[in-house]
Each structure stands twice: as C-alpha cells, then as structure tokens.
Amino acid sequence: MSGGTPSAKTVVTMASPLCVLLLWHGLTAARVFPPEVLVSPQAVLAAFDSLIRTGELARHLGESLQRLLWGFGIGSGSGLLFGLAMALSVTFSRLFDPLFQALRQVPVLAFIPLLILVFGIDEVFKIVIIAKAAFFPTALSTLDGVRGVPKAWFEVARIYRTPLPALVWRVLIPATVPAVLSGVRLSLTRAWLVLVAAELIVADSGIGQMMEMGRQMFRLDVVMVGVIVAGVIGFALDRGFVLLQARMQRWRPPATGAAA
Questions:
Q1: Alpha-carbon distance 37 to 33, whole Å?
Q2: Top CATH class, 54-250
Q3: φ, ψ for residue 252 (rounded to 5)?
Q4: Is the Cα torsion angle 10, 13, 19, 25 positive or negative in sign?
Q5: Interatomic CA distance for residues 172 and 166, integer angstroms
Q6: For position 259, what pLDDT does the model report?
C-alpha cells in the first residue's frame, strides 16, 4: 500500500501539532482560562525569542545535552557489557541476576534521595542518575538478545574452535543487533526524561532548571518554552536514533560463516 506523496505525508504529520496549536490559541483568545494558568502561544513565542537572544536557552540546553551525553554513554556502555556477561557466564548470572531483576523494578527517581546523600547535588549526581536510567534497558535487551541466539550456533562454533573475537563478531553481533538497538533506544528516551526530571528537582542549570525557575517566578511562558523544547529535543533524539538503527540493521555481517 502506498504511503502517499511526500507533501501528503508532511500534511498528515503536521496535522496533530497544528490542531493542538489552534486549540491552544482558541482557548487563550476566548479566555477560557486566566493568563496565570494558560499563557498564549504569542507570549510563549516572545519568551522563546528573548531566551534565544540572551543566550540563556542555548546555555541551559548545552548543559542538559552534555549531561545526557556522559550519563547515557556510561549507562548504556556498562549495560551492554553487563548484559553480555550475564548471558555468557552462568556463574556471573547466578551472582547478579536476582539483584539485577530487583533493582530494575525500582523507579529511577526513587534513588534520588540516596544518590544526593552519596554524591551531593553536583554534576556527578546528575550523570549517575542518567546512567542508572540508561543502564537497565540496555542490559536487559543485551541479555535477552544473546540468550535468544540458538544454542546450535554456539555448539557449531565450539566444534570448529571458533575464537571468541570471531564468535562475537560473526555470531553475536549479527544475531543481537535488533534487540540491543531497541534497548539502547529505550535507554536514550528514559535518560532524557530522567535528566529533565532531575534538573527540575536539583540543578543550577539545564532545561529542567530553567522550567523550575520560570515556575518560581510565575513565568509560565518560560515554563512552556521549556516543555516544548524538551519535547522537541526528545523527539529529535528518538527519530535520529531510529534512522541510525535502520542504517545499522542494514549493515549486518553474515552469520553463516561463523563456524568456518
């Protein structure tokens, strides 16, 4: 079934945001809610322009993205290694699987009081809470992906005495790329959500802190700018990863020669 022309796809894609914008404008124009509760799109646009001209928005966004880069990189990287170790080592799995399964059920934000006591409210705390958010989805997807590889493939590799690097490169990577990338995508989304939430609670910079300061100063226009920017950045990160995921799944070394 045809997906339609590019122009038609663009219209369909933009339909829901435009409807929300028109509804928003209509509610504020009709004064259904007082300005202290719902600011107009024009006021938000003016605040957005002011934040850009003063450089405040760029500063806060830069701080948030830097924290995301460090926290997501550490969390997803360690999750990948941990999941791989859990899948390949029975001893490692017996030692850590109960703790892993228990801790991943605890909401990330529930760790904030404990982490503040341990790390304070400096940058280390923010990076650790983001890393925690990214760790578990990546570790779980890697664990499930590797365990989903048919055991016969490992048996054939063992018979032909395939070296570990070749086993990983020719068997595990091709077989687990879809599952691992899905987990990493979820990790990125969760990391961004937790970052903004953590900045709302304890931070002196970042998109979340900008929103919190706007709330304290009764600047709902600034709060709405933060909400929109957080949504757009989250959407862009997810769409960008989807494109990367599609490219990486097209590149998959053949697993047929794993035991050769």
A1: 6
A2: mainly alpha
A3: -140, 110
A4: negative
A5: 9
A6: 40
